[in-house]
Write a structure and sequence with these properties.
By secondary structure, the chain is an all-alpha fold. Among the domains are: 61 residues, Alpha Horseshoe (Serine Threonine Protein Phosphatase 5, Tetratricopeptide repeat); 94 residues, Tetratricopeptide repeat domain (Serine Threonine Protein Phosphatase 5, Tetratricopeptide repeat, Alpha Horseshoe); 59 residues, Orthogonal Bundle (Arc Repressor Mutant, subunit A), CATH 1.10.10. The protein contains 30 helices and no strands. The protein is elongated and about 105 Å long. The protein starts with 5 loop residues before the first helix and ends with a helix. The relative contact order is 0.04.
């Protein structure tokens, strides 16, 4: 039986999505006899898909020159486009920009009417989108889609619809934008789009859905990406980012151990070759899980590494400082981040939610209310159950801090229902802690104890050590003796003092004499070690006695 030559094997492996085999077999064939332009292009794509980026660029360069040598300008321009895009994505802006400029000049000199005209418009459209001009970007992507339709290019058509969807989301037209993203994904999932383009579109669509907190679509498309990655041999790009998104979904669903495993695998996968921008995202995700578990030193290390990789460390690092008791550092960090993220729709809601937590801890209810107002405005333009839950929780927390426990209970109950609908157990349990405080303020101690107990069980199951400790401290306050050794009557007097009532008002309310009230106030001051009604009032709020 005659042996099959490596080139034939390589072409067959390429069709089977066996990228490692295709690359190795084509490289073997190339050593025997230099490959022609089309096979060099296949070898470049195979190299890229197994993470051999330098080899991919080298092969595409050779393919580019081979196409030019035989007079095929259009495919030579396509090779130059992929070289430029991949170099830019990996941080080599100057070199990548040079290849893109070369492609444009070749196309202009040849005066060709071809699909590559559309590809070369993509970088400019992306610059407009990143530069804050989504309408100009949208028009460019519409033109790109029209070129794709004219030449029946599935890859370019998917890129055009992806870009239109991203631009519409940036303009706040969520329904229309998401529809175009879904349409782009249909072409990917039905196999109409080539693997290199498909991976880019998968990741871009998931990030776009993540930016509008459409967790249902994030979960659906992440699952589809996982299946897509699984059927391709040794696929390197995209798999790491997929693991990060899987970890985020698992965290929300309360599968923290599995989420930590996925985040760790993502970091390992993205470590080689270096330079993948998703590494910063993976490190930040690990940091968040460490923080929630109470492993603060590990969290800080990951936040710092994420920042080194170009990913923002906030609001996670500020919330870590809050958990460490470094309130001044937390407040300074979150206020600076708020000033820097104006207009950054994707980052802003999470920063605002962190700001509410930190400002309330700092006692600045007005600043917390301002953050809630802005968060509510963002949520009103996006149909996101996640954002609605976030707003309701923040609103209830501010109402509680503003001494409106009854209204806080209403908002917090709405937040709990929203988190429960999303199936987010940790967030729902955090609401129950706030509910317990609110119920205690209005004297509903039975409900407060039940809410606390339910929250504590969730925290223990997840291993959420800081939250679990907070729940335990609150549960301890429900038992006697009262804080400061106060008698039940002295607690009643303290609660009324905290409302601003005079001794006469207290006497009338409790149906006792002013002299008796004065004695209770004096004893209370002595036990608490305070010398003024203002100090006693502060103590009452600190210990949830009001």
């Amino acid at each position: 039986m005659a042996a099959v030559d490596p080139l034939t094997q390589g072409r067959e492996s390429y069709l089977r999505l066996a990228w490692r085999d295709a690359y190795e077999q084509m490289r073997a064939a190339d050593r025997h006899a230099r490959l022609e332009a089309d096979d060099l292009d296949r070898m470049a794509r195979s190299a890229y898909l197994i993470g051999a980026f330098d080899a991919a660029v080298e092969s595409w360069e050779r393919a580019h020159h081979a196409f030019l040598d035989r007079g095929d300008v259009a495919p030579a321009v396509r090779c130059a486009f992929w070289i430029g895009i991949i170099l830019v994505l990996h941080g080599e802006q100057a070199r990548g920009g040079g290849w893109l400029a070369r492609a444009e000049h070749l196309l202009d000199d040849a005066a060709l009417d071809c699909t590559e005209q559309g590809y070369l418009r993509i970088p400019g459209a992306l610059r407009a989108l990143d530069g804050g001009d989504p309408e100009s970007a949208r028009r460019s992507f519409v033109e790109i889609t029209e070129i794709a339709d004219r030449f029946d290019d599935a890859d370019l058509r998917a890129f055009g619809r992806l870009g239109q969807g991203q631009a519409l989301l940036a303009r706040g037209r969520v329904v229309q934008g998401v529809s175009l993203l879904d349409e782009a994904m249909v072409a990917v999932t039905t196999g109409e789009v080539s693997p290199v383009a498909a991976g880019i579109i998968y990741c871009a669509v998931i990030l776009a859905c993540r930016s509008i907190f459409d967790l249902g679509r994030v979960q659906e498309w992440t699952a589809a990406l996982s299946r897509w990655c699984a059927v391709q041999q040794d696929l390197q790009p995209y798999r790491g980012q997929c693991l990060v998104h899987r970890s985020e979904i698992m965290q929300l669903r309360g599968e923290w151990a599995e989420a930590m495993d996925e985040a760790r695998l993502a970091c390992e996968h993205l470590a080689a070759p270096p330079g993948d921008p998703a590494m910063g995202m993976a490190l930040y995700q690990r940091a968040e899980l460490f923080r929630l578990h109470g492993e603060f030193s590990e969290a800080e290390s990951c936040y710092r590494e994420a920042l080194d990789k170009g990913h923002p460390a906030q609001p996670g690092l500020a919330l870590l400082r809050l958990a460490q008791g470094r309130l001044d550092d937390a407040a300074a960090a979150i206020r600076r981040t708020l000033a820097e993220t104006v207009g950054a729709v994707q980052e802003r809601p999470r920063v605002l939610a962190g700001s509410v937590e930190i400002e309330l801890a700092a006692g600045d209810v007005e600043a917390a209310q301002a953050a809630v107002d802005e968060l509510g405005k963002i949520a009103s333009g996006i149909d996101s159950p996640y954002l609605r839950a976030l707003v309701a929780y923040a609103h209830g927390s501010v109402l509680l801090a503003a001494s409106e426990p009854e209204a806080a209970c209403v908002a917090l109950r709405r937040a709990w229902a929203a988190w429960h609908e999303i199936d987010a157990p940790f967030e729902a349990a955090r609401v129950r802690l706030r509910m317990a405080r609110a119920c205690r303020r209005i004297g509903d101690h039975d409900t407060a104890e039940m809410e606390l107990d339910a929250a504590r069980r969730v925290f223990e199951q997840l291993g959420a050590t800081p939250a679990m400790e907070e729940a335990r401290q609150l549960m301890g306050r429900t038992s006697y003796p009262n804080p400061g050794g106060l008698t039940p009557r002295e607690v009643e007097v303290l609660r009324l003092v905290a409302t601003g009532a005079t001794n006469r008002d207290i006497a009338d309310s409790l149906v006792i004499s002013e002299k008796t009230v004065a004695r209770h106030v004096s004893n209370m001051f002595t036990k608490l070690g305070v010398s003024s009604r203002a100090a006693a009032t502060a103590y009452a709020y600190e210990h949830d006695l009001v």
